[in-house]
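quick one: NAI bound model?
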Amino acid sequence: MADEYDVVILGGGTGGYVAALRASQLGLKVAMVEKDKLGGTCLHRGCIPSKALLRSAEVYQQTKNSNEFGIEIGSPEINFSKIQDRKNSIMDKLHQGVEGLIKKGKIDVYHGFGRILGPSIFSPLPGTISVEYDNGDENTMIVPKFVLIATGSRPSTLSGLNTDGVKILNSDDALQLEELPGSILIIGAGVIGVEWASMLTDLEVKVTVLEYASRILPTEDEEIAKEVEKQLTNKGVTFIKNAKVIPDTVKKDNDVIVHAEISGNQEMFSAEKMLISVGREANTENIGLENTEIRVENGVIATNEFYQTKESHIYAIGDVIGGMQLAHVASHEGIVAVEHMANQNPIPIEYNHVPSCIYSSPEAASVGITEEQAKKKGYDYKIGKFPFAAIGKALVYGETEGFVKVISDKKTDDILGIHMVGPQVTDMISEAGLAQFLDATAWEIGQTIHPHPTLSEILREGALAVDGLQIHG
Ligand code: NAI
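yep, here:
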């Protein structure tokens, strides 16, 4: 006899397990199918481990430069295996936390590979999910009223260029490095490439980044990307833009060698390791979509604003539906999806209000559209900019580079975008997200009293600067 559930969730990553917890709060009977550990990419192969390594790199740099603060401690040394141990213990602790929450929520977890067997909602029979186990145990059949696909994504590569986990790495492999290489070639200057470039250069690795586009971080506001590039270049990262990597020129000897086409000429690059960070692709294979009406378009599953697919009892959220491939987006999509299943009338997500963050040093963070997008969309806009150099706490903190940029619609005073680069901006961007959620204008942010001295004063000054009202600039 198959087990019956209100909802079966395929995938126990940040999207899936948060959806499971919310569904359980709503009184639904929930099962989750996960082939690996609960916590998914964010906890085991993404956000958390990479941020742990970035933090160690930051502490190393701060220690190295502690003289500036009047603290003399000689020259610090990097113990990379301890850095990795610290990262692993953070992951373990958080993993235990997730396991505990799932247990408390009385959510059944099936540790195997889940597949939708159909039939579709149009059939008089209920749909079924099979769970296959690695150890050959017999399949389990589970029958849900609703299914939530939260199977996430995996690193993609360039066609003709395969990672080997040793010399040619993707971000999953890089997180497992046992030793720091002397040098690395990073292919792709998106979020992952830039975070790794920042971390590795801070840990004294010689970093060269090859980027296909004419600038790094092609989807960020151009001025912000330029500031990140300037600061990373000053630390020693070499960025080569407009570089078309030629996969079949890759050779692995002592070093990895690759040629790239730059302005019509071929140039050779070599380093001890190569990291491919050219995007991620959705995990849509082998989950039984062929047994449903759902089709994969442009590599992802299409949904409506409540995350229903073509089969209204099957929902999909997170990286597998494309869009903003961010953990906090996946988890909120999961909440909206299960609230919709439970007839709770959730508010659809306004993606323009979602913060996105880059945890490099300098950090960058944004909400809403870039200046280039505002221009393209034909907005008549005004801009307020304010530098960290004029913020007292930034001097105290010892980090005065970077700025905030607020873009507002001249006609309506609506905020179109807020972009920040500099110290602690990945935490401070939440205020911009709240302002957008509450439909605040730049004037309203400017009238909000910010504590002094704090780094957060920069957003108030930037907002005031939209109408030329900034106090300290
Ligand atoms: P991405 O899409 O952000 O960037 C890929 C970069 O590779 C682009 O700059 C692109 O122009 C470049 N590229 C593509 N083909 C190339 C080629 N043949 N040669 C050279 N460059 C090439 O992808 P990324 O950085 O791998 O990140 C994947 C996803 O994970 C993104 O959606 C990102 O937002 C998310 N993520 C978010 C993080 C965060 O929130 N802090 C951290 C890490 C990842």
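The first strand starts at residue 3 and ends at 10.
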